[in-house]
Design goal:
alpha/beta; three-stranded parallel β-sheet; 2 helices; 3 strands; 36% helix
């Protein structure tokens, strides 16, 4: 039986999603790592200035769906306030 890993990549926006889908996914699939990009979702907020509170719900949602799936974030940290609260 072949072993593999499934990774959900929560992406900030379309650019990050396309990077994962077009460049990372084909290479990692050859290694047995299957990644699926998903754009972070919150009503009224798409892309830019991602706060952890915005990502928390999506992280929890994907972790609850299957117990053998990994979740990671792919966001742009440029301009993030170093004093911002994570929670």
């Amino acid at each position: 039986m072949n072993e593999y890993a499934e990774v959900i990549v929560l992406s900030e926006g379309l650019t990050e999603m396309l990077f994962v889908k077009q460049l990372l996914a084909p290479y990692l699939a050859q290694q047995g790592i299957y990644i699926t990009p998903v754009i972070l979702d919150k009503p009224g907020e798409k892309g830019g200035d991602v706060k952890f509170a915005r990502a928390r719900n999506d992280i929890g949602k994907h972790l609850k769906q299957r117990n053998n799936t990994f979740v990671t974030l792919f966001v742009d940290y440029y301009g993030i306030d170093k004093h911002a609260q994570l929670l």
